[in-house]
Design brief:
Rossmann fold; disordered N terminus; SH3 type barrels; alpha/beta; single chain; 22% helix; 372 residues; 3 domains
């Protein structure tokens, strides 16, 4: 099967594909495979972050790698900055959610607003029939229209991060790596002599990079200290501000051992906004860390919206196997999930994404959780 055989395409001899090239091996191999399939391939490097005084963001280095790959493939590379749009549509949301004590996932919004929003539109202005990326996911036409599927290599699957992209946008998108493993991608890059064949995978989001998260967030949000409390309301210490912590977090609490307490690690179990208090418990599997159900708002469907309760698999974080749950629709477009097995550290602000086997049905923002 060719990388694009799962999609019904017009003959590629007349088709132009613009590939979003990040400077990494995945997008480089995506461009390579499409070129070999006979497409007129052009590259597009986008910059989304320009405030990098500390040198943590790797945009300049990534651009040089993208240029080297484009030169090796003998394809043009366009360079564009979406930094202003990114700050308005993604970063401001990230800050607003953080101020509210929630834990946002800006990568989901970056895909919806930037990569498959303004970047897709920009590719069309370059004359592209299709826009391609190095995401590990698959697209397939089914009786009800185009469907987003998990990658064959489920360890690299990125459908979780793509669930919020408008379904109609996928009509113009290609994911050439959907049938491949990471090892196969690197082997293809090495055999083709691509200069990024052994480049390490990027981690985190660009505007944070490898820098400490709280250090970065502190440059944009003011400290708002409050008490760190045990689940029995005992004062254990002082937190910097609820925005700087997430549920299930262990490190960075600075409360150490407590007199009269067992020698067990402490974990964040709850953020009490009314008291500006951080509630912590001892033990990785403490009952206060478990949730039996959740409510998700702003739910975006990638399949026909159901009219009756149904069973599905759900992810409440990216690197998680599908968790069996019963799904019920609310009256305002929200969705309630009741898990067969209670889930640990379900975090408001993150996304709950539903699956029917390999098909991604859509997802929404976790708004509230019900304790186990």
């Amino acid at each position: 099967m060719t990388p694009v055989a799962a999609l019904k395409q017009s003959p590629p001899s007349q088709a132009r594909v613009v590939v979003g090239m990040s400077g990494g091996v995945d997008s480089a191999v995506a461009a390579l495979l499409l070129q070999r399939a006979g497409y007129d391939v052009q590259g597009l490097f986008m910059s989304n972050w320009e405030d990098d005084e500390d040198g943590y963001c790797t945009t300049a280095r990534d651009l040089q790698d993208a240029r080297a790959t484009a030169a090796e493939l003998a394809i043009p590379l366009h360079v564009v900055s979406f930094a202003a749009t990114y700050r308005q549509r993604v970063f401001e949301y990230f800050l607003d959610e953080s101020r509210a004590g929630r834990t946002p996932n800006p990568d989901v919004l970056c895909n919806r607003e930037i990569k498959f929003g303004v970047c897709l539109a920009y590719a069309a202005r370059l004359g592209a029939d299709r826009f391609a990326t190095g995401h590990y996911a698959r697209l397939e036409y089914r009786a009800d229209g185009i469907a987003l599927l998990k990658a064959t290599d489920t360890s690299k699957d990125q459908s979780y991060f793509l669930h919020a992209v408008p379904r109609e946008q996928f009509e113009r998108v290609l994911f050439p790596l959907g049938e491949l493993s990471k090892a196969e991608v690197r082997a293809l890059a090495r055999a083709a002599g691509l200069p990024v064949f052994d480049k390490p995978d990027s981690t985190g989001i660009c505007f944070i990079g490898e820098r400490p998260f709280r250090e970065f967030l502190g440059a944009y949000l003011s400290d708002s200290p409050g008490p760190i409390l045990s689940d029995r309301d005992e004062v254990l210490g002082t937190h910097r501000g609820l925005a700087f912590y997430t549920l299930g977090q262990r490190s960075g609490l600075a409360i150490g051992g407590q007199a009269g307490k067992p020698e067990q690690a402490w974990f964040v179990a709850h953020k009490d906004q009314s008291r500006n208090a951080l509630i912590v418990v001892q033990g990785h599997d403490h009952p206060r860390l478990a949730s039996a159900a959740l409510n998700a708002t702003d739910f975006h469907w990638l399949a026909a919206m159901p009219t009756a309760p149904f069973q599905a698999g759900a992810k409440v974080r990216h690197r998680q196997s599908d968790q069996a749950c019963a799904v019920t629709l609310g009256n305002r477009g929200d969705v309630q999930l009741k898990f067969a097995v209670p889930q640990r550290a379900v975090t408001p602000g993150q996304f709950a994404v539903l699956y029917d086997g390999v098909r991604c049905l859509g997802g929404g923002v976790i708004d509230a959780v019900l304790p186990a």
